[in-house]
Amino acid sequence: MRGLFAGIWPVCRKEFVHMMRDRTTVFFAFLLPVLQMVIFGFAIDTNVRRVPTVVLDHAQTQESRRMIERLVNSDVFDVRFAAANEREIYDLIVAGKAKVGIQVPPDYSRKLLAGQQAYVQVLVDGSDSNVTAQAVSTANGVVLQESIQKMLGRNPKPPIEARPSVLFNPALKSANFFVPGMIAILMQIMVVMLTAFSIVRERERGTLDQLWLTPVAPLGLMVGKMIPYGCLAFAELIVILTVMRVVFGVPIHGSVPMLLAMSLPFVMTVLGLGLLISTKAQTQSEAFQLAMGTALPSVFLSGYIFLIENMPWPFQAISRIVPSTYFIAILRGIILRGAGWAQLWPQAAALGAMGTVAVVLAARRFARGNV
Asked: How many CB atoms sit inside 10 A of residue 180's CB?
């Protein structure tokens, strides 16, 4: 066993020395993830509210004004323009000044008083899918509620009432959903980038040949290089969690020690992935390109933005080999739902297996002289 990890501590000490000397890299390793989290955490907001709206009320009656007022009170529609004709509604939406157009026909009140079916036309800019879905859903809900009141009379009490209760994120804050997942993405990108340059840097400095002449075992070299960057990754994780809690006010419902413990297999996996890239790349430019190639699957196929179950099955299969898929599930489970080991051990086990495979493959490539 000792021979398997021979040279681990000298390599580890050497990497710590190089890391401390390269203070710029360490500084940006902490600064960039925090800046990215702050920027994206505040910029990404899926809660659609106060959508610019233009209104054309042909009826100009008490009933039409009440319907428009109910739409405005939903906090989704913000009436900023009053159009004189249908062409003006269309022009405002085309120009991007309004996202929604509400048009009440002249016979709206007459049909209501006659007991006939009346309609309100809602024109929605379909170039923004989030706005479109929320505007259509809200408009249908308001119209349905108004229709029920008309049928049941004043102060109606429908026979069936839904009373939804949102668990874990009752305020529906986007930050509570996006920020925990963002931690996995930022950590993977940063750690893979840092470790991807380690062996390539040895080659370009001419010290790789010296490593071949030392009694350093391949696995000892890999693990020795991983330990310093692993310590840096955990320090970075603590800083990011602190920013998440203080700046965005995202509560951590689960155990923080459990979160740190279950982060270990993820850190090992991304460290191993970075080292595998480092044994493959011949130059730092190639290492950078390969490292960035892991970023897009982490963002789009990990469940961070899009639901994995809604993807075609080939992409679902790819998502199962993306480390961020499992770590995002761990982060959201512990931070948002207060889940523990009993619920999240499969994700931790999958990351542990992936990390072991990545480190062993990197060591084998080094042992065979493929670097």
From this structure: 25
- In terms of domains, do 129 and 219 share one? no
Is residue 310 in some structural domain?
yes
Calpha distance 271→293 (Å, rounded): 15
**Total domains present in the chain:** 2
Same domain for 203 and 59 = no
Boundary (domain end) residue, out of 152, 182, 217: 152
55 beta partners: 82, 102
- The model carries a pTM of 0.78
Q: What is the pLDDT of residue 164?
A: 66
| Residue 236 neighbours by CB under 8 Å, 6+ apart | 29, 30, 33, 187, 190
Q: Give a yes or no: residue 294 inside a domain.
A: yes
Q: What tens digit of pLDDT does each residue of 226-281 get?
A: 888 888 889 889 989 998 888 888 888 889 999 999 999 999 999 989 888 888 88
Q: What is the domain extent for residue 121?
A: 51-152
> Could you tell me if residue 327 is inside a domain?
yes
Residue 162 lies in a domain: no
* Assigned token pair, 48: 């659609």
Quick: pLDDT tens for 292-337: 888 888 888 888 888 888 888 899 999 999 999 999 999 999 998 8
Higher-pLDDT residue of 25 and 265 is 265
Nearest-CA neighbor of 208 among 276, 285, 278, 269? 278
Residues 194 and 140 in one domain: no
Asked if 5 contacts 214 with a C-beta cutoff of 8 angstroms, the reply is no
Mean pLDDT of 186-207: 80
Output the six-digit token pair for 131: 């706005």
